[in-house]
């Protein structure tokens, strides 16, 4: 969910609706009217009126006194995701990376000070991992965010981690979000790229620390995504895919 400063309350109908949708998007469980009012800071009457309109549009679903995102907003989000050029270019490499490492794979982009996940491959059966397509988090709090900040040179103050990501093209974080697990993130493109993007994996601490092929696989995937984004849309370019080695890394 996007952060909002006190006193910056939205005044337009669309702004209020967007704030309510942001709140519901960040919720792990359905929310009732009082919870949405408290989370948005909007007047109860405004929230109730906006929710009624959103329910009528199928952007929000109401069950009893509880509200959650509706099927129409999910359909629109899915359509936008399918149309995204970066996501389409990255999917073959993301699935390959998941197959050869056995790790959860993320594709993210930078939106202001936040990471937005465009794609996630794997992890359906792993409890405690809340990342999902469309979710957001502060960029400086994650490995993929730091890799993204390394691409956003003109707008970002330097730091040792960001400088290292620019120079080494890789960010490691060990046991930051879960004991026994690590993350590796690699930026896609170069500093000042039009749409900063990065790919990351989340997997066993032991595997990531001891097997150099894991890092090389992430770097290979990021490089291939970058090349695919800049290949002319000719028949030959679309027909030929990279020759990856199919072996799975040891667990």
Automatic annotation (TrEMBL):
Residues 72-231 form the IclR-ED domain. Residues 231-251 are annotated as: Disordered. The keyword Transcription applies. InterPro entries: GAF-like_dom_sf (IPR029016), HTH_MetabolicPath_Reg (IPR050707), Tscrpt_reg_IclR_C (IPR014757), Tscrpt_reg_IclR_N (IPR005471), WH-like_DNA-bd_sf (IPR036388), WH_DNA-bd_sf (IPR036390). Pfam families: HTH_IclR, IclR_C. It comes from Nocardia fusca. Keywords: DNA-binding, Transcription, Transcription regulation. Residues 240-251 have a biased composition (Basic residues). This is IclR family transcriptional regulator. SUPFAM superfamilies: GAF domain-like, Winged helix' DNA-binding domain. Residues 11-71 form the HTH iclR-type domain. The keyword Cell membrane does not apply.
């Amino acid at each position: 969910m996007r952060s909002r400063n006190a006193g910056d309350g939205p005044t337009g109908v669309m702004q209020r609706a967007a704030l309510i949708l942001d709140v519901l998007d960040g919720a792990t469980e359905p929310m009732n009217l009082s919870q949405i009012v408290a989370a948005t800071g909007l007047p109860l009457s405004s929230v109730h009126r906006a929710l009624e309109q959103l329910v009528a549009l199928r952007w929000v679903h109401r069950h009893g006194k509880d509200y959650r995102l509706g099927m129409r907003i999910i359909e629109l989000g899915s359509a936008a995701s399918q149309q995204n050029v970066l996501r389409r270019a990255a999917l073959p490499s993301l699935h390959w990376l998941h197959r050869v490492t056995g790790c959860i794979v993320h594709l993210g982009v930078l939106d202001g000070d936040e990471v937005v996940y465009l794609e996630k491959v794997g992890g359906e059966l792993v409890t405690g991992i809340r990342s999902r397509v469309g979710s957001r988090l502060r960029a400086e709090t994650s490995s993929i965010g730091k890799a993204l900040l390394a691409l956003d040179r003109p707008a970002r103050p330097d730091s040792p981690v960001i400088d290292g990501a620019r120079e080494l093209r890789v960010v490691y974080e060990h046991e930051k979000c879960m004991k026994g697990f690590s993350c590796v993130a690699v930026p896609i493109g170069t500093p000042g790229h039009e749409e900063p993007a990065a790919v990351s994996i989340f997997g066993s601490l032991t595997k990531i620390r001891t097997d150099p092929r894991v890092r090389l696989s992430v770097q290979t995937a990021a490089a291939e995504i970058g090349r695919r984004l800049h290949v002319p849309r000719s028949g030959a370019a679309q027909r030929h895919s990279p020759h990856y080695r199919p072996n799975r890394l040891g667990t």
